[in-house]
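Thread: "does anyone have the structure for this chain?"

Original post by V.I.:
We have the sequence but no experimental structure in hand. Need at least a predicted one for the grant figures.
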Amino acid sequence: MTLKSVLPFRNGLCFNPYRLALDICIVSLMMCGYLTSISLKKDEGIDSICSVAKYLNLNENNDNFMIYVFKQFLNFLDIHITLLASSCLLTLGAPGHPLDRWTISLPQCSFVLLQIFHRTIVTYYSETEIADILFLNWVDRLTLVSSLVCIFLAAVLSFLFQPVELPPIDFLENGNNISEKTGSKKQIYPIGTARLHIPIRNTSESKISKSIPVRILYPISETQGGKSGSQRTPYLPPSISLKLCEAHMKLAPPPFNNMAPFMLNQWRLITIPAKENAMPLNITSSDEKDDVNQGKDVNKKNRLVIFSHGLTGCASTYSYTCMSLASAGYLVVQIEHGDGSSIGYENAEGSFVEYETKIHEMSLIKGRKPESVRCRRERCNFRANEFISVTESLLMWDQLKEVHNMKNDHVLNQVMHKFTNSIDRSFVIAAGHSFGGGTALASASKRPDLYKAVVAHDAAADWMPDFARRDLMRPEKLIKSGCEYDGGEGGWSTPAKIENPQNEKKKSDITIQDDTNLYGKNVTDKSSLHDLPLQFQWSRDWLNKGWAISKQIKKMHEADVLGCKNSDVCVVTEQHSEFSDVCMLTPLWLARSTGLTGPRNPIETAREVAKRSIEFLNKL
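Reply from O.Q.:
Generated one for you, tokens below.
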């Protein structure tokens, strides 16, 4: 790795120009304040303007006039104090808490205190005998040097940790959103977003909450969202954003996990191009009628994508991929799982539920790794039940009396009820990353009648429950592909109950009434994961190591025995974490030095992940 490859100005990340300009202004004011403090002499705190006027070669009349005016003003406030106060006001007046911009605020706080100390020495002690003491002179010089170090530190930290945003979803505008059936270019939509708790009905899983928190991303009309995505929404939920940043930092390596919990606070300032609680796209609106008249591809029903986050993830950290799907016309529902795998979320009572470390700590104990894997498989089954419950509740949306949310927002309820009878029940996609990819596969294995296809990004398939792994790794598929599978780490919890896996019946953990009428198909139409189109996107790191049954899945695809028509297996990223937003929000020099991202620009990688997912779905 060369220095040239990790320099911050070569990372190609999407910077926030306003915050960047603000940082430059504050550092400039600090430098001007420092230069002014050097010129402070014995009793020239106010009269220092005289030297400025003479330096400008002003004539006597103008000189006297300017000095008179400035002296009257500087009786209350001189240049040095004005510069210090201006820099502080810019920091305090900027959006967010000062610690959200710690790269500036922390060095600036030290700088201001040092400058006040320096000014006190110059003003009160320079006329006394103490001024002749060598020690005091050295203290004063040390204060000035320390002030300069603070300015340098502010500039360096602002350069290394530059303010970033998620990149715009502009790759779809280059003809990448094409209808496979008609061959026509499909419309690109602005995005609306809403957070709510979906009521869960008819579940036999006692541990599942009565309502599950989700974030919904959906297409809206240009009259609401604007053509350039001018409507912005906070990247993290404001009510728990600070706790989410602190929870992420707890997972950082020591000593950062304890000494600097505020290092990710810059994420609180990030916004996404989505309008909160906007009315969803209505086919009967005048805009959509015009689109229909112009022959544009407009869907009368919302094609639904259910997305499951990975371990220590949350809905927010998969914003770019899910926003891309919504911009392409899909209704995307991101689940905040309640099994302890989420980095944190706010439950229906308003309490913050943080990541549970018990299983992770178990995996670090010698000899207990297989036990921890079996625990993950139990949690995956729980997550799959949540996944199916949310799917069924959305498909029965017209039967929901109200949408639960923390603020009892009636506007949000009105927005969500716009989806009544608007979801295409024949087009529901199970998707997810890592643990979420395994959850999506397990859900589709348990209820293949509910889903049209599965999109799995670096799926933790080895963490799936026994029934899902047996379904995916069917003996006849393994034989045809020339590979083997013995149950993975932790083995099988239960022996196979049948000799011929094709005769295995999938039983629903969640009872619904009249499957044929509700979903437009019989549950016997599909009985296996392999009856669905499957897309596996892998990182090169996982595939080379053979993690998560990736090599067996790749061989099955090469033998043309994976899933049904249009199934796809591809290598998109170098590292596992590049499927989330984290690599686009982390300074590249830090991400590459810690192995978080590969040599490729993380924005280009994120665009390819989203593009391949959309292309796969457009083929269905």
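V.I.: this helps a lot. The chain is about 45% helix and 10% strand.
O.Q.: and The two ends are 42 Å apart (CA to CA).
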